[in-house]
Design goal:
Layout: H1 17-25, E1 31-37, E2 44-50, E3 55-60, H2 68-83, E4 100-102, E5 105-111, H3 123-140, H4 153-166, H5 172-190, E6 212-213, E7 228-232, E8 242-245, E9 256-259, E10 267-269, H6 272-275, H7 282-296, H8 310-327, H9 332-337, H10 344-361
Parallel strand pairs: 6-7
Antiparallel strand pairs: 1-2, 2-3, 3-5, 4-5, 7-10, 8-9
Length: 368
């Protein structure tokens, strides 16, 4: 049975439970009827029980977000990581391929892995996570992405900001204040002189004079020109994308962290995969970072100069996140799950956070 894309409404409105089941059946995976939607906004992700008693997770990619080549490059990266025995949950090969098409949707199927949120106040947990992040980066620095994008100032800061203003997404009573705060924040990030060559990575810290090295330019681990290395990253390594299996779990469950959702994998600095695991005041973040780096450096050196990028990266994420919500507002699930978005109070809060980030970017970076 084939389904056609809808002619009106949001594309995901056509992704009914029957379509999900039929999509899996089209590649020889037959469900027993049990299906549960998992927490995901960018894509649609479902856990399904199959007739053979196995459990899988099917991801239906948001139409027109990534090209097929970009999705396949993510899948290839996941396969490299799994081949290196890193606990990444990547797509399975079914009928000889990892990417499938049905009813106007591209989808992949992965094994289902359980787990809970990691205890990020526990230094042993952070050290364990740090070890695996380093191993991800060892694989990630072996070669660059060819078609997936880089984490840069233009795509994560300048373009989202201009889009929000051009489409009048910021209420008039807050627009002037937000425009000024976002301008000041981006100018502060851009003030550092960064030259990244082919990959165009343009991030840095005011007056630090940092720059990134294209992996194809120099294979040496310690570039003589002082450049920072850009590599393939998880890209969105927040606590929700790490599933923790307790030590007391059965051996077959592989206790420890499991990394999921490489949908945002891209080129960038190693610290991008560390900073989202930090929270609390400066002292707390310093302790957390110390534990992460202790584990990280058991497998790969960590360039301390990248610590100056933490606050600029956090600032860019703030701006990019607001634009992401606004751009997805035609998807009904967003209004349901983010009812607070778009109000004057929301944007006033964003102004305050940007002002705080401007101050944070002018402070000394964390030290470990």
């Amino acid at each position: 049975m084939q389904h056609t894309s809808p002619s009106a409404g949001h594309p995901y409105q056509a992704l009914t439970p029957d379509v999900v089941q039929d999509a899996l059946a089209s590649i020889g995976l037959y469900g027993d009827g049990r299906q549960m939607a998992l927490s995901s906004y960018e894509n649609r992700v479902y856990q399904l029980h199959l007739e053979d008693a196995s459990v899988v997770v099917a991801k239906f990619y948001r139409p027109e977000r990534w090209s097929e080549a970009q999705i396949l490059e993510e899948h290839a990266f996941s396969a490299e990581l799994m081949a290196a025995e890193i606990p990444v949950v990547g797509p399975m090969q079914v009928q000889g391929q990892t990417l499938h098409h049905f009813g106007g949707f591209a989808f992949s199927v992965s094994p289902s892995r359980g787990g809970r949120a990691p205890e990020l106040d526990d230094p042993d947990v952070l050290e364990w996570v740090g070890r695996f992040l380093a191993r991800i980066h060892v694989v990630g620095e072996a070669k660059p992405f060819a078609v997936r994008p880089a984490l840069d100032l233009q795509t994560f800061g300048t373009e989202p900001r201009e889009w929000l203003l051009r489409h009048d997404k910021v209420p008039l009573d807050v627009q002037s204040a937000w425009e000024k705060a976002s301008t000041n924040a981006l100018e502060l990030i851009a003030a550092s002189h960064l030259n990244t060559g082919a990959i165009g990575l343009d991030l840095g810290f005011c007056q630090k004079g940092l720059k990134f090295l294209d992996l194809e330019d120099d294979a040496d681990d310690t570039p003589s020109d002082g450049s920072l290395r850009s590599l393939r990253l998880h890209g969105d390594c927040h606590p929700g994308n790490i599933l923790w299996t307790p030590l007391e779990a059965p051996a077959a469950s592989l206790p420890g962290p499991h990394f999921v959702d490489l949908d945002d994998a891209r080129m960038g600095p190693a610290v991008q995969d560390l900073w989202m695991l930090l929270s609390g005041d400066r002292a707390q973040r310093t302790r957390q970072l110390g534990a992460l780096v202790d584990g990280y450096e058991q497998f790969r050196p960590f360039d301390r100069r990248e610590l100056a990028l933490i606050e600029p990266l956090r600032t860019l994420r703030l701006i990019h996140y607001s634009a992401w919500l606004a751009r997805r507002w035609d998807d009904p699930i967003f209004a349901i799950n983010f009812p607070w978005f778009g109000s004057s109070d929301y944007w006033k809060g964003q102004v305050q956070m940007l002002q705080e980030q401007i101050e944070a970017m002018q402070e000394e970076p964390l030290v470990v």
